Amino acid sequence: MSDADRTAIARASARLVEAVNGSDVAGVMAVWADDGVMMPPGRPSVHGRQAIEESFRQLFSHSRFHFQFTASEIQVVGDIASEHITYVAEAWLDGASQPTRSRGKGLHLFRRVSAGAWVLVADLWNSDSIGTVGVRS
Length: 137
Fold this sequence. Notes:
It contains 3 helices and 6 strands, in the order H-H-E-E-H-E-E-E-E. By secondary structure, the protein is of the alpha+beta class. The protein has a 6-stranded mixed β-sheet, with helices on one face. It is globular, with a radius of gyration of 14 Å. The two termini are 25 Å apart.
């Protein structure tokens, strides 16, 4: 694994978090592969770019978030990479005045595409606590 690959994947994750924190659907989708799958906790998987985009549009229409990755471990094998993350999050759901706080973990799978860019092909996560928000991209 090259440092350049690890850096590119870390940057893609940082762009994803920045876009989620800014409720920026276009920014979120800039990281995703066309055939991606999102696996949110307690809900069915979301398959494909169009469905993932619609999911984020709906989510951002009534909620806002502040995620911070507290750790990241990246492994690269050929054109596939995994990133194990831990996070802390605040979510203002349905216009709430006070956030729900959460701490959790997740796994990103990336694929290298043309020109060495990395795209997100799978994202799954869950909260460390029952009954707290585990919603993110």
